[in-house]
Structures are given as structure tokens and as C-alpha cells.
Amino acid sequence: DAMVIQNPRYQVTQFGKPVTLSCSQTLNHNVMYWYQQKSSQAPKLLFHYYDKDFNNEADTPDNFQSRRPNTSFCFLDIRSPGLGDAAMYLCATSKEGLAVPTYEQYFGPGTRLTVT
Amino acid sequence: AQKVTQAQTEISVVEKEDVTLDCVYETRDTTYYLFWYKQPPSGELVFLIRRNSFDEQNEISGRYSWNFQKSTSSFNFTITASQVVDSAVYFCALSPFSGGYNKLIFGAGTRLAVHP
Predict the structure, then answer these.
(1) Above pLDDT 90, what percent of chain A?
(2) Judged by CB atoms within 8 Å, which residues 75-114 of B form the interface with A?
(3) Are A51 and A45 spatial neighbours (Cβ–Cβ below 8 Å)?
(4) Which residues of B touch A43 (CB under 8 A)?
(5) Strand pairing of B105-106 and B46-52?
(6) What is the pLDDT of residues B33-47, one digit of tens each?
């Protein structure tokens, strides 16, 4: 089945130790998103890739970076995790185009990040 | 400003009761999309419905129904004959039609608990 896969499902890192979360998709969607969801809150968009173009949200801290080496994969890098970065990180994909109406986003199961 | 308000933080019902989840949105755009997502305890956001601003027809899908009223900027979600498996957090989301990518602006979510 076509889907969005996130690895690992649970990640523990130490304060200040760089960590990378990964996302892959078999949907062949051209847009990939990273959301941060803290406990009992709504998901918050960090950034997205439209094809190869990276788009950062204005309030996303510089500590968060992303890479998309190809259509299928996207990575979230947290350069120096702080305690406040503990959250669920959700990857999503959608098929978008200038002449195409907005479609739904498909979400992965998320990676729960713990910072010790 | 674009905003989604889900005033009900938590709802608790007994199985087989009908329940309505409220969603009120704010936008100055004339073209936009509205979504409902379900987030079960496993964490994955599951797409339920997408509605564009020009389509005010109500929709029914099995036990689920949606009432879109532009006059009151509301997009309410009703579950008929609720079941324990409906227990989840439900998010309403707004997406302005940017022609480029689909930015989801989520409400705070409503946690639904269905008891046997």
C-alpha cells in the first residue's frame, strides 16, 4: 500500500546532541511537510518542500533544518535539541500544482522525540 | 488573519450517542479549503474530509456527516451512533488556496471519549 513512513517511531536524544528524523513516501507526491506537535496541541508546520524548493515557516527556529535528497525521502535535522524540542514530529505529503486544487495531506505515524 | 476555533476541548459520550464537534473558522480569502482529521492514540493523523469554499453541500459518509455553513463560518462534524473506536482527537483545519502548497491551519482539536 502507498504510504508515508517515519523512522524511528521513538527517538531519545541528549540535550544538545544532533538528531535526524527520517520520512519516506511511496505516494510520489511532490510536496513534503514537517510538523511539530507538542502534547495536547495542534500540529504546527515547520517547513515544507515543494519539489526541490525548501520553504521555511517564519517562526521556525534555526535549530531545525531539512533535507530532501529525492522525491521519496525527507529528513528533519535538529542541530542542538533542547528540552523544549521534545514533541511528536509528523511528516506529511500532498500532491499539489498551480493548476490543481488543494488536495488532502497524508500523514505518517510520527516520531516521538524525547530529549534528556 | 486565518484562524480555526474548536471550542470544545473534550467531549465524553456513551456508546451509541450522537455527538457533534464544532468548528468555526476565520479567513478573508474567498477560496479556501476545510478539512477534518482524526488522530487516534497511535498518533497518525487520518484524513476524513475536504470541502472547498464553493461547495456548501452537506456530506454524509456512513456514520459521519458534515455541515458546512459559510454564513456562520462553521464546518461542524457529527458522528451518529458513536462507537468506542471513534475515541480520538479530531482536528478541523483551514487551508487557503495558494496555488502552490497546502498550508493547514489547525484548530486546537477536540478530544472525544466514547465509553461503552
Answers:
(1) 81
(2) 91, 95, 97-104, 106-109
(3) no
(4) 45, 91, 104, 106
(5) unpaired
(6) 899 999 998 888 999
| β-bridge pairing A111-115 and A10-13 | parallel
Higher pLDDT, B103 or B38: B38
Per-residue pLDDT band for B101 (boundaries 50, 70, 90) equals low
Residue-averaged pLDDT of chain B:
92
Residue A76 has pLDDT above 60, yes or no: yes
Closest-CA residue of A relative to B38 is: A107
Cβ-Cβ pairs closer than 8 A, A with B, add up to: 65
Name the grid cell of A67: 533535507
- Enumerate the β-bridge partners of residue B93: B35, B106
| C-alpha cell at position A3 | 504510504
Which residues of chain A have a CB within 8 Å of the CB of B103? 45
Which residue in the set A92, A104, A109 is minimally distant from B43, CB to CB? A109
